[in-house]
From TrEMBL:
Domain of life: Bacteria
Biased composition (Low complexity): 231-240
InterPro entries noted in UniProt: CRISPR-assoc_prot_Cse1
Record organism: Streptomyces durmitorensis
Pfam families from the UniProt entry: CRISPR_Cse1 (PF09481)
The protein, known as: Type I-E CRISPR-associated protein Cse1/CasA
UniProt region (Disordered), positions on chain: 218-241, 532-553
Length: 553
């Protein structure tokens, strides 16, 4: 039996009309200019498939070597023509069912007791222990070969940790088990990549040149299908040779069990784990954060770890980690607290050197998995996009980037003022304040989400960035002031009557009127007072006085 991934359809895509289809590897590259992008059963699956396609493109094209080579690919609509011959040369290693070298698997893999497990172990959209919340209830009985191939790729990237059944021939087995060695490599990342208008643009935007500073390449960099077939145990390799190696890193050992109708089971064990610390010169598809705790623990002067995504925080609120360059973040002689993804450093180089026009729009896509219960289950998946012009990444012209970053800082301060209003109204009424504060902050950020994204998308087209920033301040002020009015109207008679509260300066009177007065002043200051105090607001209401009332600290 055979299922040739180079010629059989298995990768889900969206065409230019928004119609979903499945294509083979050969057809994905041949039609990349007419496709919107790769889709998947989960966003994490899309990220894993994208890394597979990037590894293939890097290897087939032999680069890009530098920006000149990249520019020639960008200008050539048929730039992926070499992929066809490449797939012909390596076709045997892309057979999902090959008896000796099955794709991303280990032939004849078996457990000590020759067990075969449910496909639930690799299908991540079946909630562990909650089968009634899945359309596959209560288990995955069988998969077609196309879907099975996608979940095989996903398992290497995002498989959970925990105790796994020992594989025969793996010297890490103790008592028939292998104890936790961590999640798949992509599961440790706050995944980031750039999307263009077509899949062709997306692939090219994320093809980092070999001469890029800050990203390590070596001559023996090659993907998994050009390396020796893995055995059941670890290879002993602890660091990838480059992005082709890393994007196809075999973090698991697995083998599908199948018959003529599809896959019905799987054998799954640990493969080659990777340590996350200081991999920032190897992994370009995540931001990195400095970890003083790990520096102290490991006795090293500098330790960077992947900056994971927070499900409660939209991508635009973390824009500084995306657009602040590494040199800029390290000002003052101190090591940078956060390093932006190498992919965005690469695009910054392209726009700085003039290979991309300053107004070219990209969508920064963020994807990540949040694990729970000792990383043995996936609790949440993060998926967000942020449209921006590449001028925000320009290494010399930082005006637009500073406007975008400062606008987020203003939003944070303004939403804090709204949260404080909810706190004071609750205290004035004599009720608990943490719940109302959290709810008000959530409402505030939700109200600013759409306006900020639209404002950011249009920022590069603004002739006067300062005037464009003022429009943002006015927009944010309007939205949050209206939310403040809603909180006031919902506060009730108890908050209006007020009460005496104890502060570190003594007892003070607090009611809704004083809280409202304070809120308008704080909101104005947070947003740089976007409206003159002698002019009514656009809806006819008057601006608050320019002095702070006496309220609890």
């Amino acid at each position: 039996m055979s299922f040739d991934l180079t010629s059989r359809p298995w990768i889900p895509v969206l065409d230019e009309n928004g119609v979903q289809d499945e294509l083979s590897l050969r057809d994905v590259f041949a039609r990349a200019g007419q496709l919107r992008g790769v889709v998947g059963d989960l966003p994490t699956q899309e990220f894993a498939l994208m890394r597979l396609l990037l590894a293939l493109a890097h290897d087939a094209l032999g680069g890009p070597r530098d920006t000149e080579h990249w520019a020639s690919l960008w200008a050539d609509e048929d730039c992926f023509a070499l992929v066809t011959a490449y797939l012909d040369d390596h076709r045997e290693r892309f057979d999902l069912l090959h008896p000796h070298t099955p794709f991303f698997q280990v032939a004849q893999l078996r457990t000590v007791r020759d067990e075969v497990f449910s496909l639930n172990r690799i299908v991540a959209d079946v909630p562990n222990g909650e089968p009634f919340f899945s359309s596959r209830m209560p288990a995955v009985e069988r998969l077609g070969f196309a879907e099975a191939a996608r979940w095989v790729v996903h398992a290497h990237a995002y498989d959970t940790s925990g105790i796994k059944t020992g594989i025969e021939g793996d010297d890490r087995v103790k008592g028939g088990k292998v104890y936790p060695l961590g999640v798949g490599w992509a599961g440790t990342l706050g995944g980031v990549f750039a999307e263009g208008q077509t899949l062709r643009q997306t692939l090219l935007l994320n093809l980092v040149a070999a001469d890029t500073s800050g990203v390590r390449f070596s001559p023996d960099d090659s993907p998994a299908w050009r390396r020796e077939q893995c055995g059941p145990g670890p290879t002993g390799r602890t660091r990838p040779a480059g992005v082709r190696d890393l994007y196809t890193w075999q973090t698991r050992r697995l083998r599908l069990r199948f018959d003529a109708d599809g896959a019905y089971g799987v054998v799954l064990g640990y493969g080659d784990p990777l340590a996350a610390h200081n991999m920032h010169t190897d992994e370009p598809m995540t931001a990195w954060r400095r970890s003083p705790a790990q520096e102290k623990k490991r006795g090293e002067p500098l330790v960077y770890l992947p900056r994971e995504h927070d499900p409660a925080r939209s991508a635009w609120r973390g824009i500084e980690a995306l657009v602040a360059g590494r040199a800029e973040a390290a000002q003052g002689g101190e090591a940078a607290r956060v390093l932006r993804p190498g992919i965005l450093e690469w695009i910054a180089r392209l726009v700085t050197e003039g290979e991309l026009p300053r107004g070219f729009l990209i969508r920064v896509r963020v994807v990540g998995a949040v694990y729970g219960t000792q990383q043995s289950v996936i609790d949440e998946i993060v998926d967000d996009r942020l449209a921006m012009a590449v001028v925000l990444l320009h290494q010399q012209d930082r005006v637009y980037a500073r406007q975008a970053i400062d606008a987020v800082s203003e939003a944070e301060r303004a939403v804090t003022a709204l949260g404080d209003l909810a706190t004071y109204l609750a205290r004035a009424a004599g009720s608990e304040s943490e719940g109302p504060r959290a709810a008000a902050r959530s409402l505030g950020f939700s109200a600013l989400d759409g306006p900020y994204r639209l404002w950011l998308r249009d920022l590069a087209a603004a002739e006067d960035p300062d005037a464009h920033r003022t429009r943002w301040q006015q927009e944010a002020h309007r939205h949050l002031r209206r939310l403040g009015e809603q909180l006031m109207s919902q506060a009730g008679d108890a908050a209006w009557e007020g009460r005496v509260v104890a502060t570190n300066k003594g007892s003070e009177w607090l009611n809704s009127a004083s809280a409202d007065k304070w809120f308008h002043i704080r909101l104005g200051k947070a947003l740089s007072d976007p409206y003159p105090f002698d002019r009514p607001l656009d809806d006819g209401s008057a601006q608050g006085p320019n002095s702070s009332p006496k309220v609890p600290a």
